[in-house]
Structures are given as C-alpha cells and as structure tokens.
Prior knowledge:
The chain has helices at 2-21, 23-57, 80-83, 91-100, 137-141, 153-158, 167-174, 217-224, 245-260, 275-318, 320-328, 333-369, 378-404, 408-415, and strands at 66-69, 104-112, 116-120, 123-133, 145-148, 162-165, 183-186, 189-197, 212-216, 232-239, 271-274. It is α+β, with helices and mostly antiparallel strands. It has 2 domains: 2-57 and 287-415, no CATH class; 87-269, no CATH class. Strands 3, 4, 5, 6, 7, 8 and 9 form a 7-stranded mixed sheet that branches. It has a 4-stranded antiparallel sheet with strand order 2-10-1-11. Helix 1 (2-21) crosses helix 2, helix 4 (91-100) packs across helix 9 (245-260) and helix 10 crosses helix 12. The radius of gyration is 32 Å and the shape is elongated. Keywords: Cell membrane, Membrane, Transmembrane, Transmembrane helix. Its main location: membrane. GO terms for molecular function: transmembrane transporter activity. The chain crosses the membrane at residues 26-47, 267-286, 292-314, 335-366, 378-403. It is a multi-pass membrane protein.
Amino acid sequence: MLVYxxxxxxxxxxxxxxxxxNKLRTLLSLLGVTIGIFSIIAVLAAVDSLxxxxxxxxxxxxxxxxxxxxxxxxxxxxxxxxxxxxPNVKYTEYVYLKGVMxxxxxLGYQIxxxxxxxxxxxxxxxxxxxxxxxxxxxxxxxxxxEKGRFYNESEANSGSSVIVLGNEIAKSLFGDSEPIGKNVRxxxxxxxxxxxxxxxxxxxxxxxxxxxxxxxxxxxxxxYGDNNPNLTNVIIxxxxxxxxxxxxxxxxSQKLRSFRGLKAGEIDNFFINVFAGFLDLxxxxxxxxxVVGWIISGFSLxxxxxxxxxxxxxxxxERTNLIGIQKSLGAKNRFILFxxxxxxxxxxxxxxxxxxxxxxxxxxxxxxxxxFEFVLGLGNILIGTGLAAVIGxxxxxxxxxxxxxxxPVEAIxxxx
Length: 416
C-alpha cells in the first residue's frame, strides 16, 4: 500500500512538472477535458436547477389533479380544426358535476382571462394576472396567507366584489400600510381587499401568485357572460386519495357526455388533463435536454481524451531514459504502468476540476443576476470528477502500456 501511495505522489509530481515545463502544450491538451466537463456539468446543473424550481412551483398541487377544458395539455390525435370547434366548459356543468361526481375531495371552477390594472389612490399596477375562481380553489391550490383570508362560498356564489392580492401587488399598491379592508379599483368598480398571500417567488409557468389577484368567478361571469370567446373556462377536480384514476376519468367522461347529449360513436368534445401527465411531459423534455447535452459535450471529451493521450505519449518519449534506469534498478512493469496511468488521471482530473470551477463561478453570477437559483450539487461534482478520471484512465492506458513494455537497455540507449 505504501508503494502505491509513493507511486501516486511521484506521479502527481511528474504531472505538475509536465505542467510547469510545457505550459502551453499541457494547457491545450487539458482544454478539451475542461470544456467537455464544463459543458456536461453545466447542462446537468442547469437541468437539476430547473427541475428543482419546477418541483417547488408545483409542490402545492396534487399530481392527480384533473383539469377539464376544451384544450389538451399534450399532443392529441384529434385534428386541430376539430379541436377549435370544441365548446368551453360551462358553469352549469361545474354545478352539475359537483353534485353527481363520486370520490371527489374538491371540485372548482376557474376562468382564464387577460391581465388588468388595479388602482389604489395614486398607485396603479398594470397587467395584473386576474384569477377568477370559485371558493374551492384555496383547498385545491393550497394557498398560504400572510394576512386576511380567502372568500367564502356565499361571497363566491353571489359574485361579491372582494379581492385577494398577491404579495408583490399588495406591496406596490399599499407599501407598508395596512391593506386589509381597503378598497381598490378593478374593472371600473371598487373591490374590498380581504387577504394577502405569502410571498411565493418567481415561477417557471408565467405569472406567480405574487403578481396575481383572485376574485370570485361569478363576478366575471356577471361582467362578461358565459359565452365570451375571449375567455377560457376550466373545471378542476381533486380526487380522493387512493382512487383509481382511470375509473375516475371514465366517470367524468360519462357524466359530461350525458349532460351534453353526446351520442354513442361521437368523440368527446372536451379534454380530461391529469396533472401527472403534464409532469411526465416536463420530465420527458428535461430528459431530452440531458441527452442532447451529453451528446454535444461528448465531442469535447473525445477531443480532450486525445489531447491527454498525446501529452502522455510525448511524456513517455521524453522520459525513455528515466524509464530504462528505473527498470534496470528493478522497477517492475506494473510500477511503470501505474506511474504513467496515475499521471494521465491526475492531468485529466485537473482539467475536470477547472471545468467544475468555471461552472461554479457562472452559477454564482447567474444566481445573482437572474431571479433563478442555479445549484451545483455534490452529485454533479462527483459525476464531473469521476468522468474526468475515467477519461484520464482511458486516454492514458495505451501510453502507460507502451512505457511498461520498454526494454531497459534499449530505453537507456534511446534516451542517451
């Protein structure tokens, strides 16, 4: 064991000496490994950070949550022209399904509408994400409050002019003053602020709750009617835990087809989107990003491997005389083999460490500049270091074998 530790120390010394003696040659040789490791780990770190952000943004939603509307979250076999003819889901269908659906924990109704301006005194916030929803939304979405409350069933059904503000909207309108009970203007009418949400942070999926305002869905229905083509309606289902999702989807389809009077043989003119399917779609995209990153970075690693192999062959040639002397003094073939192999691994790992350091620096810069946390995790550091060691091992094996098989007499004579 002590022999191999000493061998490792000597190999590290030879590697450092190669760096000092041939700075430009070694730098160019390590450049490929550095760029390759940087590319791979940068992609992995970015994808991991993206995955972590998505998981955080969607953590409040149950993966079994179902969205019933006229659009599909993913690809569909139904032609686009036919999908464009699908009707919006109606409030009456929400009321009907709420009364007949079984194994349902919560069932809510939401309208997607355009952004609006909210005013308070001389302060105005433009392009606010208005979220008209039924009162069940708080239990479906898992909203958390800094102060105040969400509107109740009575306020929701009557379409009361009450409003719940996202954290950033509240701060922009009221600053440090108390917002609860104050009146703001929206749609040309006064709304009473009854709740302020906790700060959520930026979201990967458009506007976050911080820049949103929640109002009773029936207020918007009274304002625009039920057949406005510029609005998109959705019914949200939160099934009971442990329910068979296929049977539950079939029940939704059966009940809604019956309510709409669809005949046997006619296709569903609506889409039942399970949130888990949306997550699977995102996971698929992330996996494809990983694969593309590995392929692109693989070319850099290939070039880096050839660079390491080249510098090791040159190192063997330059130290032929020394190899002959070591062998004549009793050094075994495996000692010479490991000596050059360790040197190749050390050089490659050094290039990998430089690449990891570059990723870490860029991650720090981007985290400070953007509202997005880039994380270089321990797992990615280990992957980068291990990958660099493997590249060094593969690149150094042929030069090391060539060095170990040198005849001591010929090696001394050649080196003289």
